[in-house]
Design brief:
Layout (H helix, E strand, L loop, with lengths): L2 H33 L6 E4 L4 E7 L3 E7 L2 E6 L3 E5 L1 H8 L24 H20 L21
Antiparallel strand pairs: 1-2, 1-5, 2-3, 3-4
Amino acid sequence: MNLVTFLPFIVLIGAMFLMTRSAKKKQQAAAQMRDQMTPGTGVRTIGGMYATVKEIGDDTVTLEVAPGVHAIYAKNAIGAVLEDDEYNRIVHGATDDLTIDTPVVPDDASSLIESAEDKTEDKTEAKAEDKDADAAPKLDLGKKDEPKGDAEGGAK
């Protein structure tokens, strides 16, 4: 038989072998990365959520997604194990530079709530405006009051 006939099949088999080998390497690297997890390690899931590892099981991992909020994930759902510096920079916005030009936003809404003094001042201003509105003359809308006796067919 002719060698030219078998050449495309040989190339195809070689390409499949290389693709399978690279996929296995990626799987091994991912498994090795997941083995580096320890409680307290920061991770990113394949869905893009950042969390802290609390417990590690055989096939699952318990993550703290918010303070006091724990969720159980499959180990395969861990996309990356992060260094402490990188995790703190992403999650907490912590930087080595202490001069931050961005405004500080308070954690509570106390600065958004009016104080009792502000409320009493607003009430006294509103009462004064109401008194001014009562003192204004009434508008004449063109409707005249007719005497009751002058209506058509009415008694005099």
